[in-house]
Amino acid sequence: xxxxxxxxxxxxxxxxxxxxxxxxxxxxxxxxxxxxxxxxxxxxxxxxxxxxxxxxxxxxxxxxxxxxxxxxxxxxxxxxxxxxxxxxxxxxxxxxxxxxxxxxxxxxxxxxxxxxxxxxxxxxxxxxxxxxxxxxxxxxxxxxxxxxxxxxxxxxxxxxxxxxxxxxxxxxxxxxxxxxxxxxxxxxxxxxxxxxxxxxxxxxxxxxxxxxxxxxxxxxxxxxxxxxxxxxxxxxxxxxxxxxxxxxxxxxxxxxxxxxxxxxxxxxxxxxxxxxxxxxxxxxxxxxxxxxxxxxxxxxxxxxxxxxxxxxxxxxxxxxxxxxxxxxxxxxxxxxxxxxxxxxxxxxxxxxxxxxxxxxxxxxxxxxxxxxxxxxxxxxxxxxxxxxxxxxxxxxxxxxxxxxxxxxxxxxxxxxxxxxxxxxxxxxxxxxxxxxxxxxxxxxxxxxxxxxxxxxxxxxxxxxxxxxxxxxxxxxxxxxxxxxxxxxxxxxxxxxxxxxxxxxxxxxxxxxxxxxxxxxxxxxxxxxxxxxxxxxxxxxxxxxxxxxxxxxxxxxxxxxxxxxxxxxxxxxxxxxxxxxxxxxxxxxxxxxxxxxxxxxxxxxxxxxxxxxxxxxxxxxxxxxxxxxxxxxxxxxxxxxxxxxxxxxxxxxxxxxxxxxxxxxxxxxxxxxx
Length: 673
Fold this sequence. Notes:
The protein is an alpha+beta fold. It has 18 helices and 29 strands.
């Protein structure tokens, strides 16, 4: 159990290890793959081993105090518990005095008390006086927030953030007695199940923290029945065997107090195993119509307000159809998502073939759209293109970089099926003879326009100049280090852009080795914005199959971004003053979203992207200063927007968008306000 494999011995500078005291350890851990737990171990006097987890920051910094008992020896560090290839560089190891240990621990704990709200501190177990009464415990709790290791231990997460204590029950009951006009809710039991399953569901309904006179139970609903309920009553179809969270209807009532005009509410759910354990949390996006086209991401955990007599969905197929029908009736302000686990479903209720669920259901699909099956049970919607295709101007900035520019141009010309295309290469002071010769070649043979930009590199300004010179109704911003993979990539992107309300479309980009480089952007995680599904193996479905589903997102990268030329110009293009190099694409997406447009990312437009090959990384002091200035601008300009990305659940990790569980969920519990 305590093999020396992967353990690095640590030697203290003197014999102080024989005495009890505080060990200070500082170092750097570098890993190219997912890092497991970082641990410190030592042998105690009685021949027993003791281990302690060490939090490591996102940058790989280890900066930790550990209390060692008298006689601790054979101290060693394991950089990763899962065998990941990690490099550990020890920069400092020493014993510190009790006074020094107190000061170091307070320096870590106090900033969290200032930055976290009272409710967040309470959910984390950081009572206002804990730093004074039990500094060691406060230090450990804060250390968990510092640790960048992805959190996948769902049972531990549930124990920390999904437990209702007696005090919570009292606060919920007290609020419900004060609130007026509580919604009436009809719960329909649907589907078949044995007596145990039915009893399990009924017991959870009996345990709901909600007035009984506002709940109607329709226990014997059968397939095909019509449910004639009073107009205005809320309906919820509950599959037999499912368990409702005790506070589920309280959450619904609270949501209706916040947004009284909504007609359709859905929440998060997870899977209930036969032994009663919960797993596979389905932490959902906020309203995402395009994602619903691809898959039934809403599932069973949804209520709608009765507008007249109607059919309650009774199986998976009817459930997806019902949501697609409601999506045609209601606009986004009429739909609300509650980021809380309201329902626990038996595994039999989880289905993965979404194409089969709506195949042949033309009433669910707009005119002209055709449906196709795709990998992992996804339903691909092919949106119609007009007979007269709009001209697309593809804009490619470059400075030399012939080794990447040539494959980019050749793939555009020879692998792109879209016929109405204008290619503009913006030459930013190229001085390579071969590159200049290639400019002459492609301008003559392929009719590529070469547009000079004889100023210092400014990505935003380069594209703004090119857009103003472009002839196309549509603009495709494209990096010079990309290569076309799927010949129909541009038809796919254009078909989505021409949908009502869509302002920009992004593509799925891969590294040269086939791993995903860009699956859309999440805004907020990582401190500003970061790519989703980065590093995922080609063909992998990702969390909730979102790596293979067309969907709406907050932003997409300008390495391959399609938008309207007039929209681009109307919002001022890319910000060449504040964001000359980085985040200009994210800023553009946020500005057009602010103007009421939606962003779509599609996995069916595929290209390779070698990521900033021509410009290189920010390594010089000047580049680092510029990068910090751009980051500071984004955090100031979009401060509120960076708090929670509507398409990335607030219960998920916000250190980076890897879809792991958050150590500090950004969800406020309404009964704790």
